[in-house]
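Dear colleague,

Following up on Tuesday's group meeting, I ran the structure prediction for the three-component complex that the binding team flagged. I've pasted the input sequences exactly as they went in, so you can double-check that nothing got truncated or mislabelled along the way. The structure tokens for the whole assembly follow below. Feel free to forward this to whoever is handling the docking comparison.

Inputs:
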Amino acid sequence: MNRKSLIWLLLLCAVCIAPWLISANGYLSRVLTLLLLFAAMAQAWNIVGGLANQISLGHAAFFGLGAYTSTILLIRFGLSPWLGLAAAGVVAGLAGALLSLPTMRLKGHYFALATLAFGEVLRAVGNTWSSLTGGPSGISVPMASSGLAQMQFNSTRPYVYIMLAALLVTTAVYWKISSSRLGYALRAVKANVDSAEVIGIDTARTKMLAATISAGLMGACGVLYAQFNFFFDPESIFSLVGVSVRVALICIIGGIGTISGPIIGACFLLPLEELFNATLSSHGAGISQLAYGLILIAIILIEPRGLQALYARIALRFKS
Amino acid sequence: MALLQAIIDGLMLGGVYAVISIGLTLVFGVIGIVNFAQSQFLMVGMYVAYFAWAFLGLDPLLGSLLSFTLVFALGYAVQHSLIRKVLKAPEVAQIFLTVGILIVLENLALVAFGSEFKSVQTPYQNEAVEFFDLLISLPYAIAFGASVLAGLAVWWLLAKTWWGRSVRATAQDPMAARLMGIDPDRIYRLAFGLGVGLTAFGGAIILPYLTVSPSVGEQFGVLMFTVVVLGGLGNVLGAVVGGLAVGVIQSLSGLLLPLQLQNMVLFSVFILTLALRPEGLLRKSS
Amino acid sequence: MTDQNHILQVTGLTKRFGGLTAVNGVDFTVKRGELLGLIGPNGAGKTTLFNLLMGLTLPSEGEILLEGQPIKGLKPHQVCQRGMVKTFQNVALFPDLTVLDNVLTGGLLRLSLAEAGALAMVNLEKVGMSHIAHKRAADLTFPEKALVEMARALCTQPKVVLLDEVMAALNESEMDHVLALIRKLRQDEGITFLVIEHHMRAIMNLCDRILVLCFGQKIAEGNPREISQNPEVISAYLGQDLAEEHGA
């Protein structure tokens, strides 16, 4: 086993052991849970952002669709969240497929714009369709008994493992796509659409497939969040800055289009956010977000390709 | 009759949307980036006008001129210190820089002014004029009038002045413009300043019938982008047509459709235009 | 009407871009296994013709039959599925991928990943580029890129290959190599080639038949000797003055 794999294996072990070293319901547990979840979400985003090179600023749409689907099914029909997970994946995946149709030929800014608009529109719909979603006051996941079957626990510790599993699944999916025919097709489409078409790649279907898988995984993550937080509202679940920008940023900071990028990015960004929240929140609402925005600008100006590229640049400078 | 009323209201709102959106399309047309933070400058403009009213007793119509000036200066500085640095960087960097500016502006407002909604009181706020069975809201009408004036001013600026020609030249070919003695960087600073200043102006003139809060920009984000996409990104006349169209669409869907569907209508217009006719409904570009 | 021997039939093919007619009422037929040259002055519409055949552009008028089946309106990847492939004049490789990855992507149409990899090496060997299989495509010289693109096209296991100035940047020996390769592929695998070239020597040596386009119209068709003596062709290339001199 080479050195890199060894490091990852050790990290995995560390994550598995960590929940037992910290308080079961404490702040650290919660941070770790969300870190793993957001890493999973960033990995799902990576499928479209990294492999297809399309910057989506609307992934919150799928996150929210997933959360609402399973929660509404749970409340109205008593459907198990595990089945809700599948339903959410289907609904979100379908939305991803549908959105990919009109955005097929869009690139760069235009694509980002279209996806952003989609996320925002769902946020507005979530706020106005009160009969379905509970409107701006949000929706609560009914508390049943604690257990795996109900995907609900009365301590944070089991959630860590659920989110870890989510991260492993999304990473496995990313890895599988990347090394499969779909991965080759995506890389070709990313490089030159016409060139890919003439050698037989159905570029439309390729893009749609990536969009569907990415959206479906994101929707599944929405379910996990709902079951963890027990409550969400349109503002938080469809949030542009809190979800869409955040997962894109995590992936970009860590290294877009790399399998470790989302994980590295989450390990950097989430603790940083928590640090800001812990130290600055007392000074008033918005100050930690402000710091976050400033850091974002700084990162973009210094090294937009992310931490791995920054590290490489620094290493190069030290060598010479 | 209700239909006609809705159309009239829509047109008046649309005039304002046009002024707000001209700035966005101008920035794209001249500098080549989509300014995701554009709606935040609207918020800043509104706050400037609000405080001008609260502390100086200035009617927002006059305050709007102050908004324009201050935000113009802000935009000038932002272009020079930030945007300029990513013009040659990959698109990802450009997108996230303006997104970062969006976050900073909104939260700066939150920290500075708090989250409560603030509104102004003007003598004409609740007045309306009757015109053959139609009710024309005075604040709407005044805002519309101001928008028309502003729109004409922009048109005159771009079409008739040397500066305007420089801007159009730079938009078409920065290298050629440079060879003619035009400094593209200076043009970009002026264009960005003008662009966000106009949006701020638009925010100020609608203050009489809206409230301001740090998150007010969010209401206008998708709307502005719909206007601009309809008219063609970069097409100033298109922004006017698009603005009026969006105003009418919004007004009609408010009359005819349940609340949940209203948002979808605008979004559908937006996404269909992007998909089917990304260069906008108008044929020529500015 | 459709002769089994005719792999490609084009009738009345026309393409207008606004006021400009790039291709104007072109008719021709290609026999299976034929080596057809396509020549003409710059701007004659040759690349546009290839784009029309491949489905990258929709014809304004006309019909295209591939193996007797109409393909007008099909997307390029569907045309490729039916057995036609095209290379690009300015070479369109995937810059950040290795040569091998570029080439094997062409094989994915019909083969598994492993099989495509094997076929890629075989075709790279054929064009003489297997020694740079692991180099990044963006780092190649222009002639290397052209050859790699040809290998990639071959991986789609085509029946008809449209080569757009693949020999433009090649030196004498490289050109001879490619000419020999094309002849061999025609012989061993029955592949039909349509070749746009400016190298007269290459065209005259290689092709069974030559089509001459000028301002979007077919002005001549025939074997190399006929074409080289055709006064209209000469005048198209050299200008009206010379044609008058020759008494045309």
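Chain C has ten helices and ten strands.

Cheers,
M.
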